[in-house]
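BUG: 3D viewer hangs when loading the predicted structure for this chain

Environment: internal workstation, default settings.
Expected: structure renders.
Actual: progress bar stalls at 90%.

Input used:
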Amino acid sequence: MKLTLDCPLTHQLLALQSNSALARLLSVAKITQSELPLEALVCRQYGLQAAPDYPIAAIAAAADGLNVGNAYWLRADPVHLILQRDCFSLHETVPLSVEREHAMLITESLNQHFRQDGLVFYVGKSGAWYLRSEQVLEIKTTLPSVAAGKNIHQFLPQGADAARCRAVLNEVQMLLHEHPVNMERESIGEVAVNSVWFSGGGAMPENTPINDAQSINSAPSETSAIVATSAFYQGLAHRSDLILQPVPKNPDSFLLDDIQSREHVRLQLPELENVDDVWFKALLTAIKRRKINQLILNLGFYEKSLIVKIKPADLYLKFWRRPKPVMHYLT
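Structure tokens produced before the viewer hung:
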């Protein structure tokens, strides 16, 4: 069984030392670097084209219970902008976790203001936020994983309709300033939702047969199942006619037994505090027992991705390679 695993390199993972399971896997792997952020890499591997954005929002919204039709969609992630000395930076947590009741109150306020402009905000069943525009917006956006923690100026929408989008963002920020939801959030020590972040713009693309997908160091045409919780991955599974499974709570049972009948499984790794102990140790065990014939780790790091390939024999043929802290493999 072949397993492709998509995972952003969070600060927690980057801090892992040489005694971690991830560091052990990296030490014996063949590692190449892609000049694409993780979500863009996944899009390319499934035959999606950037025009100029990858249409992530429309694909996710359709799987998130919304009627996308032929409209133009953007993800409108709730975010917190941090005032620095002479600029704003994007809080690393994107999107912010917002209770559904609060999300509905905020989007209702935004819709009262913007509906007359042909802009409507939605909250999907997953809790993700979207913006539908009656008109196509000629802009290029930046994925939040690329902009997180940085000065947002160079990452704001670009293109013919950039001025309009920036004006919308300014109005959103004014509407959210002292919004009752934010006052309640701040009273209990949570950061305010003081803006939204637009990304993944476009209309729903036509279905591309998976055998025609453009492969980048992977082979989506072989994929038989996607294991994920996000609406975007659910949308990919639907449009590619693949089996969709929820992420299991027990990785050992999942890796050693549950998916052994599948030829190639793609897994969106959940973000957990103890992800190395829970998932990467289980992956290391599964490779040692030859339950996985090939493991591909797509590790996103801001605007780039590491593509890591490991086979069971690597653990024995490259035993002499000493693991190093995870951060080492990014230099």
